[in-house]
Amino acid sequence: MGRREPSDEKKRAEALRVRKYREAQKADLKLLEAEQRHWAEMLERLKASQKNDRRSKSARSRPSALAMDLSRRQNKALRNQVGEYDELLHLLETWVASQQLTQGPSHLRAWTESTLMAHPAARRQGYHWLSERVYHNATIAVPEHPFGIRVDDAAQFKLHTSDDVDGGASIVGMEVHVQHTYFSNFKTVANLVWSFGQKNSAVKAYLASQVLEEVDDHTVYSSGVYDGTRTNVRRIISIFEGADRIVITHALVTDDELHPMAPGELRTHGFAWTIVERVTDEISLMRHSTFHFAPMSSQGVVSQAELGQLFGKDPDDIRHRDAFIEQVGGVAEATYVNGLQKFALKLGEAVDQLSG
Prior knowledge:
Layout: H1 6-59, H2 61-87, H3 89-93, H4 109-112, H5 120-141, E1 154-163, E2 169-182, H6 186-195, E3 207-216, E4 219-226, E5 232-241, E6 245-252, E7 267-280, E8 283-297, E9 300-301, H7 304-310, H8 321-355
Antiparallel strand pairs: 1-2, 2-8, 3-4, 4-5, 5-6, 6-7, 7-8, 8-9
């Protein structure tokens, strides 16, 4: 028996290795072919699905187009509405909790500096929002009223000042309060006060005015000129009716996009309210409060010298700042208190005429 040569063993081992390799290759190829078939089938299903979608969309093209058109119109309407409210953005940014009158002018300036816009929807929103701010202040101030529980006829004036950068004092605002008792039903008195803001009113006393816009049954927008200072005023006047109390608000607007200030024009800046309360069926208590900031021109807040001129003071007198402010305050007190007392008396005459 012959001995095997080493070369034969090597050949057999190499042949076995090659056979195993080829078998592994065939197995891998089968796996790849299976994966190829899987993805090919998946691709065909996707193509078929797309064709079905196109046929479905084609079948629905008309109602879908109508729905799309309706959607576009609705979106346009919504965008327009959003645009309207965007125009109110600076109003919204200045919305702050209304402050009590006793906290002084600096806490009240934010919302009173709002602009009355030209856009109809924004303008209407502004009318009501500013009126509600004044009403809120009025209702808060009732328990804090300077006359307290007194019901006798009375008047009170207060001058608000602040320190300038240079350390000198400046007038920043004035407030005046008047109350009067009338022997008539509170609704009758309130209706007469409401007519104060109307054209050709019988109770106009210290402010000549005319209606610019009748917003609704409870709100009007008017312009006028104050007797005494001769400053212009634009007022949003609103009436709020309660069971035993009626409040009439006055929001004084300086920045109006439809009626911008002319060069040289001065506008009164601030707010006011009149509260008419029932005491008995035939007795009413009327309390009126006015708060004015320094007037505005197209250039901004008037200077102290210009403010003094409105009350008959020489601009050169401001060199003696403290005396100047005291004198302006004295004239302003007489002007405001006399004007409102004149209004209260004229209102009383109108009440008597109705009662008689």
